[in-house]
Specification:
It is built from six helices and three strands; from the N terminus they run αβαβαβααα. The protein is of the alpha/beta class. The protein has a domain of about 110 residues: Vaccinia Virus protein VP39 (Rossmann fold, 3-Layer(aba) Sandwich), CATH 3.40.50. The chain has a three-stranded parallel β-sheet, with helices on both faces. α2 links the parallel β1 and β2. α1 runs parallel beside α2.
Length: about 160
């Protein structure tokens, strides 16, 4: 199948397998990272899609949110960690559908979700990284900046 042309499309078997792996991975690592006493954990999906497929299967952004919700239910201390989700989707109609799907979820106050539509991953990440993620963690990120080499000028200037 080529690139889908509709807002919502049928899920491919390889995508379903990828989503199963992603869910298991996020279930494990969300809990591990939150126990590391990081002030915030950021999850970025640069090709987010609408969050749902033709027959109602959920896409990677909703899988990520559900995994974090489940881990927070199991580990209430996660409520002390800000969870930042950035979903970027170039197609505006898909981004709007994703926003609708996100709005249907009841998210705790420590979850921050931003859906960026109508822009490329590079542009969406650079414009958002410098505002929400960096602002939320400015002190922490200033300390990290001196010890981590970031790839690409967009990330260096955003942090």
């Amino acid at each position: 199948m080529g690139a889908p042309k509709t807002t919502v499309w049928a899920i491919e078997p390889h995508t379903q397998a990828k989503h199963e792996i992603l869910d298991r991975y996020l279930q494990a690592w969300t809990a591990i990272l939150s126990l590391g006493r990081f002030p915030a954990i950021a999850y970025v999906d640069g090709f987010a899609g609408p969050g749902v497929y033709e027959k109602g299967q959920i896409g990677s952004p909703i899988i990520a949110l559900n995994a974090a919700l489940e881990q927070q239910r199991q580990h209430p201390a996660m409520a002390n960690t800000k969870l930042i989700f950035l979903f970027i989707e170039q197609k505006t109609d898909r981004a709007e559908r994703l926003q609708e799907n996100v709005d249907e979820l009841q998210l705790p106050s420590n979850f921050r979700v931003k859906v960026v539509g109508g822009t490329s991953f590079e542009q969406g990440f650079a414009s958002t990284c410098s505002t929400s993620t960096a602002a939320a963690n400015s002190r922490y990120l200033r300390r990290l900046r001196s010890s981590i080499r970031l790839a690409g000028p967009a990330c260096r200037s955003a942090l």
